[in-house]
Amino acid sequence: MLTFIGLGLFDENDISLKGLDAVSAADLVYAEFYTSRLMGTTIEKLEALYKKPVHILLREDVEQNPDWMMAAKDKNVVFLTGGDTMASTTHVDLRIRAHDLGIETKLIHGASIISAVYGLSGLQNYRFGKSVSIPFPYISARGNRVVTETPYDTIQKNKENGLHTLVFLDINPDHGYMKVSEALKLLMEVEHKRNEGVMENQIAVGIARAGSDDVCVKADFAGNCGNFDLGGPLQILVIPGELHFLEAEALVKLAGAPDCILKEE
Ligand SMILES: C[S@@+](CC[C@H](N)C(=O)[O-])C[C@H]1O[C@@H](n2cnc3c(N)ncnc32)[C@H](O)[C@@H]1O
Prior knowledge:
This protein is of the alpha/beta class. It is built from 9 helices and 14 strands. It has 2 domains: about 1-110, Tetrapyrrole methylase, N-terminal domain (Cobalt-precorrin-4 Transmethylase, domain 1), CATH 3.40.1010.10; about 115-265, Tetrapyrrole methylase, C-terminal domain (Methyltransferase, Cobalt-precorrin-4 Transmethylase, Domain 2), CATH 3.30.950. The chain has a 5-stranded parallel sheet with strand order 3-2-4-1-5. The protein has a 5-stranded mixed sheet with strand order 6-9-14-12-13. It has a two-stranded antiparallel sheet with strand order 7-8. The radius of gyration is 20 Å and the shape is globular. S-adenosylmethionine binds near residues 81, 112, 235 and 236.
């Protein structure tokens, strides 16, 4: 049996009791932390809680050579991830691979950043369009710095349909954890390059450290990048589309957005 377990949002105590029982009963424990991280804990703390070793998988172990899962044919193997267990396509792919190998699978869910965003911002889940990820800029083969423009386009398309965009921020071994302020600067860079003037006067919502006691939620105009200094990681960004009056009220009262967004209604 291969059991996929979501660890929740912040530290070792965010796992469900069901999840903890499954880890305690497991013969082998694997985890990946490249799609998300639990910033409030360490591998040592997880191992102390589970009373067994946790084997950390690299991206290639998960996406290219998941041969470790063969043990699940006759053992209880658990696979741990930050957040919920199936919130990334990678994990669905892994489950399908297990199915094709004749391995039985089971899911034990955890709190996800996706639903935490709705609660923390007051933005309603049915008003979100396609989500997007912003990667760190990279240097092309010709030596140019390249800023990916797809996130900007997706945000504009969602906005045309009145929809909000959830923007995941890059976690990268070389660059670290992207912050909301950096993401906004990258979006603004695309905007200036295209000479379009919509982003600056657009409300943005930044959320940092969801699930911790130190959670921070801030809404302001995207042009005020300096007001989005939210402290440490992890961070996530939302670019709202049309605001329902309750959503606008929540952003003003719960996230410090300027009052003028209420007058737009
Ligand atoms: C690709 S998503 C993976 C989502 C995860 N499987 C889940 O269900 O929560 C990871 C991104 O979500 C955001 N994120 C995840 N946990 C977060 C947290 N506790 N607070 C703020 N942002 C978070 C970050 O932008 C991070 O790079």
